[in-house]
Write a structure and sequence with these properties.
This protein is of the alpha+beta class. The protein folds into 2 domains: 3-52 and 175-381, Naphthalene 1,2-dioxygenase Alpha Subunit, Chain A, domain 1 (Alpha-Beta Complex), CATH 3.90.380.10; 54-167, Rieske [2Fe-2S] iron-sulphur domain (Rieske Iron-sulfur Protein, 3-layer Sandwich), CATH 2.102.10. It has 8 helices and 20 strands. The strands form 5 sheets. A 7-stranded antiparallel sheet has the order 13-19-18-17-16-15-14. The two termini are 40 Å apart. The mean pLDDT is 95. It comes from Mycobacterium gordonae. Residues 54-160 form the Rieske domain.
Length: 384
């Protein structure tokens, strides 16, 4: 993000903090409780997510030719490789023979061997070895291989489409946010690993926790609220995506400084909500990525949490500090946000109340749900 833009956002955040207010939506908004509990909305949600471009990681996870990483999207294992010419390719991580996974984790490999019967593929997905080949007269190593999925690197992130042969137009998907996301460079920072939360909450309930800071003063009293202001947010929408600015508690100190002395990221956290299921958080030293997926039933979701840092990870003390920050953020989401909303899920499923209310002070929350609603309405009206 350009410095002038950060300064402008800092001005807006500082004014809100001074006025003890927040950006406001035009009205309150209501959502039917069934959106979190019923099978029909859940299946529509799953189809919506799968039909969208999938942001699955940082480009820094494939640093050199020969690098590979595996990702899971709604129970489906994906293998991504960086080939000799530097391009990124993606495949269903499924052997042609008996459907075993041919790779796990991340690393460097030019070939992948199925652990079941040793069928072997190169990193372009081509089948190169079939032991006992006489038993498979219809298999042709030169033409057969792993099922390829559309893949690209864009704005510093790895993207795939879940349907072979479909168009993957990430630039069109991101629209005006593409250059801004790329400018941060967080997808090229050092990756710090991946943590998974398999939670008994609806995927929308999980994402709701990232869409407002109104809850900081209560849910995060001893954690995030000691760092960031509660119920104070700068909001901007970009089509189905949006950006939130969470001012830190230090922001009022800027009243004592000239603007040319401001260091915006010492006083702000920048949150991006990418349609339909991605949350990205940018601070001065961290680039967090949350991929939130609908589970196999309405009351289950999978959150994949990653982090990256621009800090020098060759210094052991710096690396340990970066990992500690990652652990702290993950534990807070797991033990405070998600643990609390487990009880919300139970209440929603009880049928005690038919609607949830989102306040004017929760514009990000409203925008997320309205974007999902518009997408689903459009899908319903599109001829098959």
């Amino acid at each position: 993000m350009q410095h002038d833009q950060l300064i402008d956002l800092t001005r807006r955040a500082l004014k809100l903090a001074r006025d003890k207010t927040t950006d406001l939506a035009p009205t309150q908004h209501h959502v039917d409780a069934r959106e979190y509990t019923a099978s029909e909305p859940h299946e529509r949600d799953r189809a919506m997510v799968l039909a969208s471009p999938q942001l699955v990681g940082y480009v820094s996870e494939l640093p050199t030719p020969g690098s590979y990483c595996t990702k899971t999207v709604m129970g489906r294992s994906i293998l991504l490789t960086r080939t000799a010419d530097g391009s990124v390719q993606a495949f269903d991580n499924v052997c042609l023979h008996r459907q075993s996974q041919v790779a796990s984790g991340c690393g460097v490999a030019r070939r992948f061997t199925c652990p079941y019967h040793a069928w072997t593929y190169d990193n372009t997905g081509r089948l190169v070895t079939v032991p006992g080949r006489e038993g498979f007269p219809d298999v042709t190593p030169k033409s057969d291989g792993l099922t390829e999925l559309p893949a690209t690197e864009f704005a510093g992130f790895l993207w795939v489409a879940m349907e072979p042969g479909t168009e993957l137009d990430v630039a069109a998907h991101l629209g005006p946010l593409a250059d801004e996301l790329d400018s941060w460079g967080i997808g090229r920072w050092s990756p710090l690993g991946e943590k998974v939360l398999d939670s008994p909450i609806n995927w929308k309930l999980a994402i709701d926790t990232f869409a407002e800071n109104y809850h900081f003063a209560t849910v995060h009293q001893q954690t995030f609220a000691t760092i960031a202001r509660s119920n104070c947010t700068v909001f901007d929408a970009y089509g189905p995506h949006h950006r939130l600015i969470f001012p830190l508690n230090t922001i009022l100190d800027l009243d004592e400084k000239a603007e040319d002395q401001w260091v915006p990221l010492n006083n702000l956290v920048v949150i991006y909500a990418l349609f339909p299921n991605i949350v990205i958080s940018v601070t001065i030293a961290n680039g967090e990525l949350f991929r939130v997926y609908p589970g196999d039933r309405p009351g289950r979701s999978i959150t994949v949490h990653q982090n990256s840092t621009p800090l020098d990870m060759s210094d052991d003390s710096v690396a340990a500090g970066a990992q500690a920050v990652f652990e702290y953020a993950h534990a807070t989401v797991r033990d405070e946000d998600y643990r609390l909303v487990e009880s919300l899920q139970a209440n929603l499923e009880s049928g005690a109340r038919q609607r949830l209310v989102f306040g004017r002070n929760e514009p990000g929350l409203q925008h997320r749900h309205l974007a999902w609603q518009r997408a689903l309405t459009l899908a319903d009206s599109t001829p098959c």
